[in-house]
Amino acid sequence: MPIWLTEIWHSWRSSLRRPGFLLLATGVLALGIGASVAVFVLINGTLLQRLPFPQASRVVVLGKIFSGEVGPISPHEYQFLKNIPGVKALGLIRPGSVANISGAGVPQQVPVTYMDRGMLPALGIQPILGRNFNAAEDRPGGPPVVMLSHGLWQRRYGGARDMVGHRMLVEGRAATIIGVLPKGLDTLSHGGGIFLPLALPAASRDYDHSGHMAIARLEAGVPIRSIAAQVDARERAMYRDMGMGGRWDRPQFGTATLDVTLHRGERPLLMLFTASAAMVLLIALVNLTNLMLLRTLSRTHDIAVRHALGAPFLRLLLPAVGEGLLVGMGGAFIGMALAWGGLAVLRQRIPVEWLHGGQITVGAMAWLFAFAVAVIGALLAAWLGVWRSRQAMGVDTLREGGRSGLGLRSGRLGRALVVAQVAMAVALLSSAGVIAHSLYVASRTHLGFSSDHILTFELAPVKAHYPDAASIQAMSQRLVQRLRLMPGVTGAAVTTNLPTGDGLYDQFNNRVETAGGKQFYAQLHGVGNGFFRVFSIARYQGRVFTHDDTRGSEPVAVVSRDLARKYYDGDAVGKLIKIDMNEGPAIPVRIVGVVASTYQYGPLAPMQPVLYVPLVQMPASTFEVVQKIEPLRFALHVQGRVAGWRAAVQKAVAEVVPGQPISHLRAMRAIVRQTTANGRLSMWLVSLFASLALLLAVAGLYAVMAVAVASREREFGTRMALGASPARLIQLVVRGGMYQVAIGLVLGMVLAWGAARVLAHMSEALSVTGVGHIDQVDPLAWVLVCVVLALAGFAACLRPAWRASRVPPMRALRGE
User: Fold this and answer.
1) Of 188, 244, 738, 798, whose Cβ has the fewest other Cβ atoms within 10 Å?
2) How many CB atoms within 10 Å of residue 201?
3) Does residue 386 contact residue 393 with C-beta atoms inside 8 Å?
4) CA geometry: angle 230, 234, 240, nearest 5 deg
5) pLDDT-derived band at 502, boundaries 50, 70, 90
């Protein structure tokens, strides 16, 4: 057997014969590998997941730049992007609200997405069955046709291959199924439903940006920057020709790859998870390095003897390499098992929309990543230990080492590594602390309404049966009256928006002008009578809507308290405002009341100014625009438990609106809880990583203190022989350990301050994705972290200190 293989084999036998160190080192490495692999798989399944389109890197989004990000574009702006040199295909897509479908099954509400016939060529895909929209179908008044998403085709029709040519009812009108789209296109719709022609007029004057996304496929070799410059130049020229030069002379339009656009919502959180996992892995590797260093230095006397007998450095390195290989492979296997278990829990918490049709799976790349990091990290740690021991191969080591094995000068690097671990643990625990504090503050925040005993559902009236705003409003009033008659229902109301829980594109923002000429934007919510009573929204001034506020009466509005404070110094009742309804002239409206402000995006996001108007007074054109982006919401205040009302609600709806499906029947408390789901996920993961960091830091401190006590056994025995008390020795050891902890805490607070600045800089993006505002300085979190780490460090020092106080003096003197 070759000599190198013999050395490695002997090191393995020695480690397995006394597996204490092997289990400790493998466990430390496995914790770091498990955390990092879990996040690696999560990142690989989201940000790194290739979009299911050919040459996806050439698929880009063209649009207006909002806060540095390429966002939606209006149909009017889109028509000026045709025939750009370097663009192979161009399409426009807009996720809609919901559509009512029937035929070949029970009536159902499904997501609807509108797209023009250029979208499929832009994505580089074709229907798996049937064909794309043609020019005649993709224009106003064209033949009614529909394409099915892959998910709906499987769920409703069982994947039948003969669906092309069949007819179904869409909003009460017969439409021909012309195709079934591939599964990949579900990433651009809300979970898959039906796709309808966008049917834009030849010269659209639609300036609505709500959700319209222009997607282009570039020619091979065309740089994105050149396309961005052309898009920006065309749009600015268009606005200058419209007499809107001014601020449009600055770059306002651009391009971004489709994958970047789709993942921009979850990217900040995923980067936070990645940084946390990387910190845990770094702490684990530092801890492993410390353990391997102490392991090697404990055998310095043996290494010095072998060196004195003429053993080359490679021969001295091989035992440590063998042990490092064993630790690395064991850490990789156990770490993968931990990652698999963690991912099983994580799959239940990750929002489905993060995956965009992908899956979180542990593949070959995850195994390669785990073994590469584990084995390379363990070998580097082993090499560092042997390299450090080269400085102790002289005669002094042979004279100093004796039976104890570890010289007095050999623990400096180990103590420095402990300080580094404590510092990184402080930074990670502080980050978890500030996020947890943010969530605690959010949980104590009054949302401005009550969600107790409230049941909600959504209803999008069938357009063929309710073609205009007046018929929809009359139907909703009848339904509300019927819902109020249900046993156990104490109140019911209809609204375009719930007090919280709607998404960014489910809002209808209108420009408002005061009598003094001041302009601002506010969210416009149409509500029915009883809305404020159902949700217990407090009234501060004036009145709320009554039955006298009808279509023919004076237009009135109720405003949120923060709007009244910001624009009217709290005295808004009686003031006249003009609301831009997008269609026609602005409408004068009188403010008749002020109510409590609500957190529309949840307690982790800033409040938005809200303008409530009676649903029956909403202009028809405005109501139709609202219906394009969201269905009506109905809310019931019930007695007792909210669960178990589905059958009764469906029966009441069927009595008033036969054949009308409803969707999203759920408790209001569940909607409120969902607004903090991302924040709770962030706290859960970062706290988990912080706990691992604390565990690793304490383990590292314990190992250093245990080896240090063992190396100073003669010293402690001599001190005992000279009259030192056990309490004095305990104090000596604990003071040395806590000195390292104190230095780590000081350095860690500097790192924590830097981490807090980064989190505060990310605060705006994180608030949109559900983490909330984060302060740069959070004294409470920092104090708690320091106390926890100090207590943990003290506990890690106690057992080695107790061992030091129990050293028999005679054994130490015999060694002399």
Assistant:
1) 244
2) 12
3) no
4) 145
5) low
Strands, DSSP E only, in 240-341? 253-257
343, 41 in Cβ contact below 8 A?
yes
- Does residue 775 have a pLDDT over 80? no
Rounded to two decimals, the pTM is 0.75
CA dist., res. 226 & res. 254, Å (int): 10
The CB density around residue 55, as the number of other CB atoms within 10 Å, is: 11
Report the distance separating Cα 564 and Cα 108, nearest Å. 42
Contact assessment for residue 587 and residue 557, using Cβ atoms and an 8 Å cutoff: no
- pLDDT tens, 510-559? 788 888 888 888 888 999 999 999 999 999 999 999 988 988 899 999 99
Of the chain, the percentage scoring pLDDT greater than 70 comes to 82
Select from 95, 180, 181, 196 the least CA-distant residue to 142.
196
Which of 334, 404, 82 is closest to 230 using CA atoms?
A: 82
What is the enclosing helix (H) or strand (E) of 608? none
Supply 157's token pair: 């029709």
Burial tier of 563 (Cβ tally within 10 Å: 0-12, 13-18, 19+): buried
Could you write out the DSSP letters of every residue in 684-708?
HHHHHHHHHHHHHHHHHHHHHHHHH
Q: What are the residue ranges of helices labelled H in 46-87?
A: 75-78
* Cα–Cα dist 764/778, whole Å: 17
